[in-house]
Design a protein that fits this description.
By secondary structure, the protein is of the alpha/beta class. The protein has 8 helices and 6 strands.
């Protein structure tokens, strides 16, 4: 089976940031959450909070929107941002594993008929995480939790933070702006 990161890998951009900007355009009053969001970045920069907590500050706007409706509208507009190279090689048993929230990625995975999505669990009503941010070594842990034994034929990502998954794949590839190259230096 093949395993793919989502943002910057099969999607041309960062779906979380793109969704936030999409929501902000439709509901400009969400700007009122900006001070809290910026405070989260300050605390993260000072190493007072971790990445999961930072994202909770960022997702503080979720209680103010109808996320389900907005997510569908977002993918109506942004489905075309899925890279063609992925569509051309997609297989029925592909796994998407991402730090982005499940509520955001599940609709596009359903549209693309991707059967397995492992992503950060975020309460769409509160913006709070249910568990850890699905990033780095956490991706490996979550994949092993979902599948007791997994044999990754090929792994694709745009991020060196995904080295733990790249190391357990038979082959690994880095994706930069839709260009796929073999992952080098897996021993570091």
């Amino acid at each position: 089976m093949n395993v793919y990161d989502f943002d910057g890998t099969i999607y041309n951009g960062d779906s979380t940031v793109d969704f936030y900007l999409f929501a902000l355009k439709r509901k400009p009053s969400l700007i009122r959450y900006l001070p809290k969001q910026l405070w989260g970045f300050v605390l993260y920069g000072l190493k007072r909070i971790n990445k999961t907590q930072l994202k909770e500050y960022f997702f503080s706007f979720l209680p103010a929107i109808d996320a389900e409706t907005l997510v569908e509208a977002f993918w109506n507009k942004n489905q075309s941002e899925i890279f063609d190279w992925y569509i051309d090689q997609q297989k029925h048993d592909d796994i998407i594993i991402s730090a982005s929230p499940r509520f955001l990625l599940l609709p596009i995975c359903n549209r693309l008929k991707i059967g397995c999505l492992i992503a950060s669990e975020v309460d769409v009503k509160t913006g709070k995480f249910i568990g850890e941010n699905c990033r780095g070594q956490e991706k490996v842990r979550r994949l092993q939790e979902e599948y007791n034994t997994v044999c990754i034929d090929c792994f694709y990502s745009d991020s060196l933070a995904d080295l733990p998954l790249a190391k357990i794949a038979d082959k690994a590839f880095l994706v930069k702006k839709g260009v796929v190259t073999e992952w080098q230096n897996l021993d570091t």
